Amino acid sequence: MKTLRGYLLRRILITIPTLWGVSVLTFAIVHLAPGTPAAFFVSSSSFAPVVLARLAAQLGLNKPLIVQYADWMVQMLQGNFGQSFTYNVPVARLVFGRLGLTVALQGIAFVLAVVIAIPLGISSGRRPNSALDHLVTTASFLGLSLPNFWFALMLMLLFSVHLGWLPLATAGPGLPWLQRAPYFAMPVTVLALPQVAIYARFMRSSLLEVVRSDFITTARAKGLAERVVTYRHALRNALIPMVTVVGSGLAPLLSGSVIVETIFAFPGIGQLAYNAVLRRDYPVTLALTMLTATFVLVLNIVVDVAYVLIDPRIAYA
Q: Phi first, then psi: what are they for 313, rounded to 5°?
């Protein structure tokens, strides 16, 4: 327990300067990029320097960058991410109001991908060069090759336009969660397909590498059944690299998918990020970036701890 506590303390101490570096880099990029948020609040007929300067002063953009960064950091450390330029509401309320939909969408896609991919990868790895192995390999390469935007448009064309089975877009606002299932069907499918391909291929490769090890040969020499050798001895070791891959797949859980949410007009974090970047909504862009960076760093720590839980031979040192 002391070793775990010391490891977590070290990782947290490393995480703090990392997050500070992310904040500096993100703040500099969004403010030095061409364009100004004030330009989105005036028409082309009133696009005058005086008007833009007045709007910039109202938004607090007329101060030096170092002063703006200091003010933003002080507010953020107090849990205040500022006011959205576009929606004129607190950023925290705007982000957390959409977070539930993104977590639900990404979470369903992630669970579906893991439930399908892991058994497929194990079955493919147990029978290399079989008909099932070739089928899984072909399907995996196909899933990785299809662009998300094209696959989403094809699903919309087939199931919404031609067949009329599924709603075209949105997340079913105002409906109970169970009645929103048709609205989630196509976005979940688009998000889950590439994850199934990645996890299945990686599970297959990891299992094939483990079954060639000496301890597996020894287990077979003892007369153990192939099923026992696979699931009791090989699978546990094959899951160690899978933790990294599956853990990285959790990163979009809070960041969302910009392409998929935009195509399906899904009011989640991804669509919010797209609109914030497009309209130079600095507070929203910065808040989403810091939220995602914090989640990814915490996720990396959880993945490292999971290594030891799966294989006690791995030390925190």
A: -70, -20
d(CA 109, CA 105): 6
Give the pair of three-digit tokens for residue 229. Answer: 């050798």
Question: Would you state the pLDDT for residue 201?
Answer: 87
Residue that the structure tokens 């995602």 belong to: 292
Both tokens assigned to 149: 């935007």
Residue 32, classified by CB atoms within 10 Å of its CB into exposed (0-12), middle (13-18) or buried (19+), is exposed
Could you tell me the pLDDT band of residue 83, with boundaries at 50, 70 and 90? confident
The CATH class given to the 92-310 domain equals: mainly alpha
Q: What is the mean pLDDT of residues 211-222?
A: 79
Q: What is the pTM of this model?
A: 0.81
DSSP states along the chain: -HHHHHHHHHHHHHHHHHHHHHHHHHHHHHHHSSS-GGGGGS-GGG--HHHHHHHHHHTT-SS-HHHHHHHHHHHHHTT---B-TTT-SBHHHHHHHHHHHHHHHHHHHHHHHHHHHHHHHHHHHHSTTSHHHHHHHHHHHHHHHS-HHHHHHHHIIIIIIIS--S-SSS--TTS-GGGGHHHHHHHHHHHHHHHHHHHHHHHHHHHHHHHTSHHHHHHHHTT--HHHIIIIIIHHHHHHHHHHHHHHTTTHHHH--HHHHHHTT--SHHHHHHHHHHTT-HHHHHHHHHHHHHHHHHHHHHHHHHHHHH-TTS---
Burial class of residue 98 in the structure, from the number of CB atoms within 10 Å of its CB (0-12 exposed, 13-18 middle, 19+ buried): buried
Residues 6+ apart with CB under 8 A from 206: 121, 125, 238, 239, 241, 242
Helix 282-310 and helix 269-278, axial crossing angle in degrees, nearest 10: 140
List where CATH 1.10.3720.10 sits in the chain.
Answer: 92-310
